[in-house]
Amino acid sequence: MERPPQDAEERQPVTKKEITADNPTWCPGCGDFSVLSIYYKLIQKRNIPHENVTTVAGIGCSSRFPYFVQAHGVHYIHGRALSFASGLSLSRPDLHVFTFGGDGDAFSIGGNHFVHTARKNVKMTYVVMDNFVYGLTKKQTSPTSPIGFKSKTDNWGAFDQPINPMKLAISAGATFVARTSHTNPKHLLEMMEAAMDHDGFSFIECLSECTEFFAGAFDNSNPRKGGEFKLMPEDHDPTDEASAYALAGEDFPGRFGIFYQIQRSTKNALEASVIESAQDKFQGKPDSEVLQATFNRMK
Amino acid sequence: MSETTVSEANNGSHSQASNISEVTIRLAGNSQDGIQSIGGFLARLAGRSEREVMTMMTIPSTISGGASIFQVRLGSGEVLSPGDKADVLFAFYQHSYDNHVNNLAKDGMLVYDSDHVEPHEEWLTKYRHIGIPISSLTVEAIGGTARDKGKNLYALGLIGRMFSLDTAKLERLINERFGGKGESIVKTAMDAFQAGYRYHSDDISNLFRLAQGGAERSNQVVMSGNEAIGYGLIAAGVRFGAGYPITPWSDIMELLRRELPKYGGSFIQCEDEIASVSMAIGASYGGHVGVTGSSGPGISLKTEAIGWAVMAEIPLVVIDVQRGGPSTGLPTDVEQSDLNIALYGGHGDSPRVVLAASDVEDCFYTAIEAVNIARKYSVPVFLLSDQAIATRIEAFNEPDLKTICKDVELDLSPVASHKPYDLSSGDGLSQHRAPGTRIEDGRYPVVTGLEHDESGHPSGDAVNHIAMTKKRRNKLKTLADELPVPEVCGPDSGDVLLVGWGSTKGPLLEAVEQLTNEGYTLSSMHIKHINPLPTSLEDILPRFKSVYIVEMNDGGVYGYGQLAGVLRARYADSRIKGINKTAARRWKVSEIIERVKARLEEETAAA
């Protein structure tokens, strides 16, 4: 596969104005605004060349994200953003792909892809803006809705066991698993940077309040609302899977920070090594000659 | 088996070899017997001997132990179909004998393994029977360590003797096939083959000699339809694909997984069909043409994503190796019943391109065409194949790879400005710009499944929706003008036109040839570009009194099949009628002939 050369030209970091597109269609007070502004900040701080900023999303309120970023972007179908982003990441290793979505996209319709993208360790950053509710369709139960949450599909209160995204990611084989909240932008940026630096599938669950359909859901994790933003214990070893899993099991609002991080070969690297050894034998011969060699064996 | 010379003296031998122009051999056994590999050897031998070959293989849907057959038709002229009836049947077991005798031609020859088969009285007089204790003679030849192993090569030796085949070439093929597995394996294989070849019986020695074909066939390659699609995609510059295992598509995905790394590419096995099509689309967005494929239910699962690629105008190639449906259907049997899903699968108005390959060689070239169309028109392209060509092995003239092969470079050159859905051209075409492309005016594209304006921003405006719907449709109109008009074989006007698509091409041509020899006047036409239909096709149909669409799908509630439905809708011509078959087997030439005759009689009676 062609590897385009990195832009050698020294350029000024993109400005916030340059990276800002349409006015977001989110409701006033939506947590997603905070994630968007931190994404702008990340792009500027890390000096990502404007043309290489690539934002992928599925369907949902939060998946409107790419429209609000003035950069190459994709608004794909519901639940399959990770698969799309995997195809992009694997065929274009020169890009760092950012994928955004909500809890329905990630853990309900796209649950299968979440598990397999994690275990394959496809290099990209995935931020799930978890609001515990279906917002775009106006208040139905989501896979992370807590038991007792009254929605239009559970008038009497949700009773299905919610998914614990940290546990799911750890057990699926994700190599970077972190949790943050829209109410703590500094922490959010810290997590985004760590995720971007991680060589592999880096997953962040960002609590992002839906002020319209589940207001106050995350107050007990917000010091300004009388809650506590509880960081990981100082002695937590993020390579310790068992302790990461145990911390993920703490009662809501639980912990914030990097639960789990290990180094394991990315799918990108493993595929590249297959390519390298396959091409070694042909010593730079043109493709037509490689195919001719195969055809010669079919005579 | 058509004999050109009755016999010729063969000095020093009791037997006389008849010169024949073609022969159809059916081998019937179990799937673990390596029946297919005998077929493969014969096909390759024919490819190296200036002969045409066409083979048919059926594989059982069970994992192992099921019945398996391979039919190979070798000819010195042009071989169009795998042959209706076998001239020679090799029956390895009682069930092979019982189930396949009715596929033997009148006066056909039956070679059976007398260790396993007890011939029936009533068939002894009808067919020439030759019993050979194949199992025990194989054990004798190679030692008793591997029961049943090597029988296929022993049988290949017998066939070599019967048809005076070039043993030196066959031995070279065996060496090539087993060479990588160690000396003792090669020796065992060669022992079995030579023992079969040396089997002494006046019954089988040098019975026939296949005539040599013309020299123009000297440079041939031999492969299956699935292989031809895989290599066609590679030749066209496809460097990324994704898929999920399903029969009979899996061969293509296995081939691409194995081969693409040599060209710097990858093929990814995904967790499901939806992930596969999505990954392929993701790679297309990245600037390569991504490919996915499937069969049966897998195609149903991909339809939402294909609709996205239509809407977002991202190139994509979808290979559909059709099998019997609906639902899980008939996984290892042939049917052409996916035309409708290829054309219409998905919600909303979603125009896409649909091509159908007609034989193994055509699989190679149609795969290339599919990629080129996807690239140029930024649209999903379906390539329909079917079970009848997927596993069939054919020899065809070697393609000139130097001129065909595309080294497609990723184009990330900066542009001054870019509208992903530019309406200005009027032909519907617009070009995708992959991430990494610098847009100098700072207005970057979002590609999306929401209805959008020219720059990709969501728009629910009615005028805009009309304009964009027209754009997506106009691309196909532009393409239709560039497509070649299908050739009419036979008189270009007259009483009857038989129209086919996909794998019906060979049997249809043979049927027309035979009917013409019987004094009928009729023509045939094969449609490869089904959506859009080539411009000017509308001039051809009215030139015939009756138009019959021959296809392997159901005639439906109103008496015409899927392509017939398309043509009736397009040309508003009620003379277009269907000749359909859903027996999960390919069309036999004789069936087409019978059905056409019956139809003509009906029409005459009605008139």
Description:
The complex is a heterodimer of chains A (299) and B (607). Chain A has ten helices and nine strands. With 299 residues, chain A is of the alpha/beta class. Chain A folds into two domains: 24-264, Thiamin diphosphate (ThDP)-binding fold, Pyr/PP domains (Rossmann fold); 266-299, no CATH class. In chain A, the strands form two sheets. Chain A has a seven-stranded mixed β-sheet, sandwiched between helices. A two-stranded antiparallel sheet of chain A has the order 5-6. In chain A, strand 5 (133-134) and strand 6 (140-141) form a beta hairpin. Chain A is globular and about 75 Å long. The two termini of chain A are 29 Å apart. Residues 1-6 of chain A have low confidence and may be disordered. Chain B is an alpha/beta fold. Chain B has four domains: 3-218, Pyruvate-ferredoxin Oxidoreductase, domain 3 (3-Layer(aba) Sandwich); 222-404, Rossmann fold, CATH 3.40.50; 412-482, no CATH class; 488-606, Rossmann fold (3-Layer(aba) Sandwich). Chain B has 19 helices and 24 strands. In chain B, the strands form five sheets. Chain B has a seven-stranded mixed β-sheet with strand order 12-11-13-14-16-15-22, sandwiched between helices. In chain B, helix 4 (134-142) packs across helix 7 (183-198), helix 8 (225-235) packs across helix 9 and helix 10 packs parallel to helix 11. Chain B is globular. Residues 1-15 and 59-64 of chain B have low confidence and may be disordered.
